[in-house]
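[job 4417] fold queue: 2 targets
>>> target A
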Amino acid sequence: MKNLIYVICIIIILLVILLAIFSSYISLNTLAIIISLIAFILTPTLLILTIISISKGNNKKINKEKILIKNENTDKFNKIYDKLYESHIKSLEELRKKAKREEIIKIVLLLSGFICCLVGEGYKSLGIVLIGFILLLISIYSFICLRSKRKYKEKYKKEIISSFVKLVNNNLKYKLLEEEGDFLQREFIKSKIETHCFNRYNCTDYIEGKLTDNVFIKMVDIDVKNVTGSGRSRNVEQIFEGIFAVAKGNKNINGYVKISRNNFIKNKKLSINMDSEEFEKSFDVLSENKILAMQILTADVMESLISFKNKYDIDFEIVLMNNKIYLRFFVSNMFEPQIFGNSMDKELIYTYYIILDFVVEITEKINKVINDVNL
């Protein structure tokens, strides 16, 4: 029965829109104006009521036991997730649903503005008034919506992500502030991990900590672009978006080794063929010192890199330079809450988990190898 009501509402919306557009073009004067006004009032009203009804109808309690994770399901992650879920899901979902409703209403207002444009083709004065009014509503409502979105986002990051990072590794801590943004931007340039030209950076979600053997690590969600031209000729090219990390070890390798995605190394003269065929399928290695690369990329290290890539299909690159280890992961919108979806999406949070866990694991493993070999 409810589905039938939704269908009827949508049909009425479409009929009113068609009548409004048709009447504005055949010069029916008073009839055109009346139907146009009905289109303006009835369309957004019916859309809002329909969306709210559907939203309420689907407002079921989320069953975390039914949320499945691809690949393997670890005990440690499940304990972390369950702890966060029980503590925060109720308050977080309330904020998310409020932000979602406001976003939907904003979309409806935009749709109404589009309808006004179509209606106004036949009667310009009416169109100008309707368009002006709807644009004013959109501007005011968009400003109001920002508060709900900001509140939801801040709670998600301060309570969920901050606690999550600490639970994954007690030595790590999360900061919402961009205090280390400039430093990590300089490190991104220094690492030579990116070969394309770029001139714009934006850093968020800063993580830092001290691992075993006095290894210090800093991590950030970075957005890198290359902007050229201005005005109409302005062009924005997305260069990289994802997680960038830098770890400072105790020993200087006095060299440069880059582990890149397969077929992404342009300088074939410096490309090194490793002993593992499985490794060669997924990665390329670049270095001026073949012996150094072979010493660091032991069978155990290569196996860890292959395992992560094959299990999760997440692209990543590593650069070893002097006493630092640089890593980057090609994942977008890390640590960002969902509005149109579960605020505690288990698969999404699992992605955070595997990347953080791998960064710590591979950093400690490579640093141990560097400390053990005679360079």
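>>> target B
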Amino acid sequence: MGALEIVMVSALNYPSLGGTETHIIETSKRLAARGHRVTNLACDGFGDLKKTEILDEVEIKRFKAYPKNSDLYFSPKLIKELKYLSADVIHIQGIHTLIAPTALWKLRKSRTPVVLSFHSGGHSSQIRKTLRSTQFKAISRVLSPVKKAIAVSDFERSYFQDVFGKNGPPIDVVPNGTESLDAFKIGKVASISRPTIVSAGRLVKYKGHHRLIEAIPYLTSEYPNIKVHIVGEGPYKPALINLINRLGVSDHVTVESFRRDERGELFSLIGRANLMVLLSDYEAHPVSILEACALGVPSLVLDSTGLHDLVKDQFAYPVAPGADAHEIAARIKEMLKSKVQLNGMYQPTWENTVDKLLEIYEEVTSQ
């Protein structure tokens, strides 16, 4: 296969730290390193980023989105740009904003093959969660340009096979990967008498950081020096800080964030931890758990949605979705005392992800 011109379309991109954005930039850089020409189209939700940027031979173009500071991402200029770009394949990344349906509508008569990655996620708004199935069914009506869809987990593939039915595109599973993190591995983690726990992810309610905070009062009598790092940014931050203060655990909990150029510091923090915790209502295939596993740090997750796939593949240990704070604390104590460690059935890398993407690109461009 010769060099391809690949256009990736998404709501957000670098320097955002979300799982979808990490997937896009990590695969784009590696595709470019293999000699392909890669252009990323994305929104600038706050209007404070460069309109055009070159990062490791990847051209990133950003466009205004409306409403400003919203997570809907309606961007007429981005969609119009699709008309002028030369591409062998257009890869739409993410299905939960207005980018996917508007781009698919624009491309409905295009001869350029389209690949659609779901990168589905949860939402803290009950109204938005209720409307998701309706939104996805509406998208099913504009799937004609899509030659192949991509899920990041078996759970996500099954979910969208049910949503789209027999008229949907074929769906392949291409898991997320991790970069080489050997340099950040710590030979000696925090002492069991002074355990460190990390919960990383956007600060929104469905991510479940509050569940870990609520469990801390049940841990401090046995572990008076326990330290919990809540890592992320988002609109739920004030509520989490209020909860920390109300429960009187401010000496044990730190809420912090890292920029993308500070990922080394983040990996060092995780590498020193005794445990990574992700008690999220919905995840497709979280990169943070794969990174923790690569760093040799065990993870505790809610046994539901795409997190169940990580439990099944031995990347994480489960806690029941309906577990209360006392039960979550008991599971954490169990894991701290047993010093458990899972290595996963395999350790996926971003190079593995790119290998599979190129197989799909070759398939759709040869049809």
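[job 4417] complete. Note on B: The longest strand covers residues 37-44.
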